[in-house]
User: Fold this.
Amino acid sequence: MLGIRDRGASPCTPDDLIRQHYDLGNAFFASWLDASMCYSSAMFEPDDDLARAQLRKIDYHLAEARAAGAARVLDVGCGWGQLLRRAVEAHRVAHIVGVTPSLNQAKHIRDFGDPRIEVEVGSWYDHRPAMPYDAIVSIGAFEHFARRGALQGEKLEGYRAFFGEVHSWLKQDGVFSLQTIAYGNMRREDQNNFLSSQIFPESDLPTLADLVLSSDGLFEVVRLRNDRSDYERTLIEWTKNLRRSWQHAVALVGLERVKMFDRYLRLSALGFHTGTANLFRVTLRRIDRSRA
Amino acid sequence: MMIIERRTASEIKRWLTAYIARERNVPESKIDPIRRLEAYGLDSVTVAVMTGDLEEWLGVSVEATLPYKYPTIEQLSIALATA
Assistant:
């Protein structure tokens, strides 16, 4: 997976740092995520529990990307593979590729033993598909695509490189469904501190303006939703789960780390509640001809 | 098995008053239970930690955003005692 590129280093958070987070161990995450191990915001209807709302989120993105019955679909940042599974089992996708930097997650997915599901360990930056995709989805990965401390211009350049790649991987008229956290109502100088807990020390978030500017001319925005209240509710559910399995979690990773996660989940819930952070779901259609 | 003793509203009120006084480094007498919590300048990190500590002490779930729904010590204490 070590693709040699002639355009310099990847603009992303280094893979090993993301890996450190997700490789804390499947058992630790399983102790507070829902059974499907979705580690991103769910999509709630009033009577949903967390598992139902996670499934609703996955189905939403697959529908937005028009993945039903597709021959080839890509999931950038596929986590523990719940979307991959759902795509082949319920949406008649013939072949789906998931990309993740985490070895633990990749192993978990390989253990499904489903020949329709392929997993690649690495970054989007090194992904080289043999054939284009009919649909692409990315949920909760874009948050790692800029390094903390990068200049605004570098950040936009990195995002634009990503959108450029997604554009080139998609078939004509193909749709990309993206879900990402973004900075909301906070001062620019405070933005870098938002995630300054020890959870993701190297990652930085986009703003809505960053998303628009860096995809301009490559993608048409078909739909844009800000579902920050969904993330607030998801985080509250995770906090409750973590409390319920507190002793088990402490046995797995130690008290300090469990406390740190509890604080991180709570702080994030407050951010989505007050609107200092947003949760965007963006449906983007590939533009085939650049403007005259 | 751990038996969790339910706390009364006045016990929770005392706990919150002491906690905020300690956070702000002021005497407890300066903390007014019917004043909005935001007046004490608690930042979101403090609220996140406080709700976690409160949950641990009470033994029942305390959502991080609860102080936004019940924004004074008085209201929060009553809500938690009757939850």
Remarks:
- The domain at 15-23+46-228+276-286 of chain A is CATH 3.40.50.150 (Rossmann fold).
